[in-house]
User: Fold this.
Amino acid sequence: MLSNLQLLRAFASIAVVLYHTGYFFNGIHTEFGGVAIFFCLSGFMMAYVSRKGAEGFMLNRVIRIAPMYWCATSALVLVLYLRFAIPEITGAFRSGHHLMLLAVFGVLIACGVTLFRSFRRKVCSDELILQYLWLALPAILVVSGLLCLIRWAGSEEVFHLMKSLLFIPYTNSDGGILPVLGVGWTLNIEIILYLLFAICLVLTQKWAPLLVIVAIMGAEMVGRLIEIPLFLRPYVGNYTNSFASGIVIFYIWQYLLRDRPLPKRWVNMAVVLFSLAFFRWHLAPSVLAPILQKVPLFGHFIGSVIPECVLLVALIAHEAGVRISARLPLLLGAASYSIYLTHGIVLVIIQAVAARWPILLPSGSLAAASVAVLISVAVGVVAYRYVELPMLAAYRGWLRRKRGTDSVKVETCAISRY
Assistant:
């Protein structure tokens, strides 16, 4: 296992959480390139797992990212329905309409208990019943979210939720192209890149990663030559280029770095120096201001290659035997997808509480931002342990029963465990 990549995932997810707290470091608001690192990791790992062929590739991708995303999106809708951060529904909440949500959950729980007893007596084992319940969890949450929107909002919001769940970009009321769960915009891009990879794998397994690079570069050139619609612009830009760079780094690692370790002492020194330069770049860019003013392209180039350099340094360190083995970073790396998806919900709740106690506002102080990050990470780890893992196990079991084999393994996406 490339354990150093787990550290990168943990760092990137926490960096994104910190960015969304709204805190500024000496006037600088940065996510330390976390999203770009995610896309680099994604390109690298898609090239890595593509060696197994096209069979089940797209299904594995969808199973890995969609159910948890559906749960997180629907959970956000439920939180918003229960008054947090949405003052427009305060009157409805106080007038008792929120009882509809409780009634929905009551009916679902009653149905679940009934089915559980029936299946337990007549059909199957407790383990299989639990698998069915985990398979149904995303659907239960989605239906609950749709019912809340139908009662609280209008048909337009319902269609927005459905588009979000189907990874279809749309222009929202603010003129942006963010889905209901804001961070889902990256998954909209990822799902298209996975689809592109699957198509290329069908054409040729050997050259599929290179075909993906050609397609991404071609789309980039088209985007520079003609005006493309707003909702398509995220698919042509820096993040898709980072995905392509991750594929290039896979080939560099496969043919130039793998099983060719550098001296461990020099690698340790390089990691320390690169880490210092990395944080210096993001937290004190004014140091390079004179150079950047004279050569603007230099700053753009450095900023665009830093995520790729982060991945390269992690791989070089791995080959030299400098590998992460501590349990906490590995756990946070494994839980990074859940942290990434759920932190927006946690921050909505924290900001609602901070409206009454301003000292808790994450953007107000480093202490409050740190507390918000710690709570978000803790909630993400809990969601990973008690929702993501059992739900993935249920879908793996479903795949095994469908294919009649015990050898099915569900690969994971860029922002969690591969």
